[in-house]
Amino acid sequence: MFRRSFLRRGIVETITKENFTLSRLTNGLRVITCDDGNGITGMGLFTLNAARFEGPDSFGASAVYEFMPLHGGEIITEKEVSAALGMFGNAYKVCNNKEALAVMLMMPRYHQKDGLDLLDAMCLHPSTKAEKFEVAKQQTRERTQLLTRDPTTMCFEMVHDAAWSGQGLGNPLTPTEPQLEALTVDKFHRFFRTYTRPDRAVVAATGVADHAEFALEAEKRLHFDYDATVTIDVPASPYTGGDRRVQNTEAPESMNKFQEKNLSHVGLFFQGTPVAHPDYYTLSVIQTLLGGGTSFSSGGPGKGMQTKLFREVLNREAGLHGMECITAWYSEGGLIGFYGSAPHEHAQRLVAIMMQQGASIAARVTDYHLEMAKNQLRSQLILLGEGREQLLNDMGFNMLVHNFMITPAETMEGSAKVTQESLKRVARELVERPLTFVVYGETKGSAVL
Fold first, then answer.
1. How far is C-alpha 308 from the chain's CA centre?
2. 367-381 burial, b for 16+ CB within 10 Å, e for fewer?
3. Element of type H or E holding 244
4. Which residues of 141-167 are buried (b: 16+ CB within 10 A; e: fewer)?
5. Is the dihedral of CA 101, 105, 106, 107 positive or negative?
6. CA-CA to 44 of 20 to 30 Å: which in 211, 227, 439, 440?
7. Distance, CA of 282 to CA of 22 (rounded, Å)
8. Domains 11-221 and 242-441 agree in fold
C-alpha cells in the first residue's frame, strides 16, 4: 500500500544559527534556508537514494534517475519542464555523491513557490513509461562510455571500490552494461519508492526571507509517494581499505585537449571522518596545508604554490604531471589522501614519493606554514560562501548526509584552533589505519602495501 504524504501539518521544531534556519516538519522532511539578501534563490531537493543504497536488483538506479527529471514525469511533460526551467533562467543541476542525490535550481526570489512545484513534479513523480525510462538508460549508457575513457574518474571509482570492498559506498556511480540491462522500470520504481521518503530528504534554499512560510509551502507542495509497508534496514558501510590495480598504458581516444596524454594515475588514501567529527577542522587544514595540483594546471602556475606538495614535490620532480591532496566526507567516515599522475616511465617514482609524503604529513611543517594554511582555508571559505551553488550544496548535503549544520564561520573558528600538536596527532592516527592504494596505468613494479 502506498501512502501519499500531502497533508499540511506544520513545523515540529526550528533551530537558528547565524543566518541559517532549520526546521523539521511532522512528516520528517527537513527544510534549511539562508537569507543572504540576494534577489536570486537557489533551491535544491536532496534525497538519500543514491548509489550506496543500491543492490543486485537496483544497480544503476541512481545513475538513471539523474537523467529522468528533464524528461518529465507522471504529472508534468517534458515540454512543461523545459518551459519552467526557461522561465527560471535554465539554471539546473543534478549531483550524485554516492550517498545522496540532489536536484538544484536557481530562480528569481518571487518564483520560490513555482520552484517547489517544479521540484515536486519532476523529481518526486518520475515517469513509469517504459519508453521514457529506456531513453534515460541510454543516456546513462552513453555517459558511462565517456567516463570510462577518463582515467581520473576510473581511478576514483577504484578508490571507493577498494576502500569499502565494493559494498555500500563502494558501489559504482557508473553502472556496467549488464547492470543497466538488468534494471527494468519496475525495479527502478521499487527502489525509488523505497528510499525516497520525506524523513530521508532535505529541502535547502538561499534567498529566503520568511523561513516559516517557505517551510510550510514545502510541506504543502512536495508530495512523496513511498511504500510505507517496507522497513528500510541500511547495513553499515565500514571502511576496510584495500588494493586495486588496472594495467592500462594506452591513452583512450579523446576529443578533449591534454586528455590524450599517456599517464599512470595513482591514489593513496586514508580513512577520514564525518563532518560532525571533532577532527574535521584539523583534516580540513591538512588538506589545505598539503594542497598540490598539476604542472600544467588551468590558468598557469601560481595558485597554491606555497603548499607542501608544491614545495616538496611538484617544484622538484620534473617527471611528475601532478599530485594533490583530496578529501571526501560521508556519514560513516570519508577519505583523505593523495591523487597523482605521471608518465608511465615515472609511475614507480610517483608511488615512492606518495608513500613518503603519506608517512610524513606533519613533518617539515613550521608554525609559519601552518598559519598560512589556516589563513588560506579561511579565505577559501569566504570565497565559497559568496557562491550560491556551493553554499546550497553544503547546506543540503551536510544536513542530509551528516545530520549536521555547520556554517563557514564555525569552520573558520574551528580551523583557527588547530595546533601543531593536533596536526601531528591526527596525521599519526591516519597512517595507523588501513590504507587504500590504487593504480590505473603502469602497475608493474608498483609497491606492495
1. 25
2. eeebeebbebbbeeb
3. strand 242-247
4. beebeeeeebbebbbbbbbbbbbbeee
5. negative
6. 227
7. 26
8. yes
| Grid cell for residue 355 | 608513500
Domain ranges of the chain: 11-221, 242-441
User: What's the pTM?
Assistant: 0.91
Q: Which residue type occupies 222? A: L
**What contacts 142, CB < 8 A, 6 or more positions away?**
none
Torsion angle of the four alpha carbons 158, 164, 168, 174, in this order, in degrees rounded to the nearest 10: 0
Judge whether residue 285 has pLDDT over 80. yes
20-25 β-sheet, strand order: 11-17, 20-25, 30-34, 201-206, 40-47, 101-108, 92-96
**Pairwise CA distance, residues 231 & 295, whole Å:** 51
What CA–CA distance (Å, rounded) separates 330 from 372? Answer: 27
Q: CATH: 3.30.428.10, 3.90.1150.10, 3.40.50.300, 3.30.830.10. Which one for 242-441?
A: 3.30.830.10
Task: Give the contacts of 145 (CB within 8 A, at least 6 positions apart).
Answer: none
Please compute the mean of the pLDDT values over residues 318-326 and round it to a whole number. 91
- Any idea which residue has 543572504 for its cell? 36
Per-residue pLDDT tens for 344-371?
999 999 999 999 999 999 888 899 999 9
CB 190 within 8 A of CB 7: no
What region, left, alpha or beta, does residue 181 occupy, with left being phi > 0 and alpha being psi -120 to 50 degrees? alpha
Residue 5 has pLDDT above 90, yes or no: no
Per residue in 413-444, pLDDT (tens digit) is: 999 999 999 999 999 999 999 999 999 988 88
**CA 96 to CA 61: how far, in whole Å?**
12
SS3 for 88-140 is HCCCEEEEECCCCEEEEEEEEHHHHHHHHHHHHHHHCCECCCHHHHHHHHHHH
Q: How many CA atoms lie within 13 Å of 448's alpha carbon, on the beta-carbon side?
A: 1
| Distances from the Cα of 343 to the Cα of 156, 312, 322, angstroms | 18, 19, 10
List the grid coordinates of 8.
Answer: 499540511
By CB atoms closer than 10 A (0-12, 13-18, 19+), residue 110 is: exposed
**Statement: 11-221 belongs to CATH 3.40.50.300:** no
Question: In angstroms, how far is CA 202 from the centroid of its own chain?
Answer: 15
Handedness of CA 290, 390, 93, 116 (dihedral sign): positive
Is 236 buried (19+), middle (13-18) or exposed (0-12) by CB count in 10 A? Answer: exposed
